Amino acid sequence: MEIVIRAIVVFAFLWLLTRAVGRSTLGELSTFELVLFIVMGDLVQGAVTQQDTSVTGAVLAVGTFTLLTVGLSWLAWRWPERLRFIRGEAVVVLRDGEPRMKVLADQRLSMADLVTSAREQGVRRLSDVEIAVLETDGRISFFSYESEDADGAPDSGPQAA
């Protein structure tokens, strides 16, 4: 039972940590960040299971993390308006070709990141973009003027921040 309690505490800490780190950082990891997260994973394992290397201890720890993850996803699905903080919200980072600098700063997203993401999606000039949205998973979606009705964009778009 002690493993389950430690797993819940560590899970809550990791959830808060990922919310604090921000979406743009989680979208793509550098080599150093990947190594850092792997080391953090080992440290977390030690904190959750301590000296318990049994199969039962591992199953309890992984099972607790899994149940908490599925539970949070279900809660966010069941009450999306009330629990928006679990997944976050998509935000508009560029409108009518103009970057929204305050939003970029709030999301810790640099202009270089925005331009790189645009280039990766075949956007040559930001001035050709009607709207760019930082999605909840850290990716950026670009919608150009010419694809206004044919892009398959959802009707309920992101909220402007």
UniProtKB/TrEMBL annotation:
Pfam families with a match to the protein in the record: DUF421 (PF04239)
Keywords: Cell membrane, Membrane, Transmembrane, Transmembrane helix
Domain YetF C-terminal span(s) in chain numbering: 84-147
Gene3D superfamilies, sorted: bsu07140 like domains
Chief subcellular location: membrane
Membrane-topology annotation of the record: Multi-pass membrane protein
Transmembrane domains' residue ranges: 58-77
UniProt subcellular location: Cell membrane
One of the record's GO cellular component terms: plasma membrane
Family to which this protein belongs: Belongs to the UPF0702 family.
Protein name: DUF421 domain-containing protein
Protein species of origin: Mumia zhuanghuii
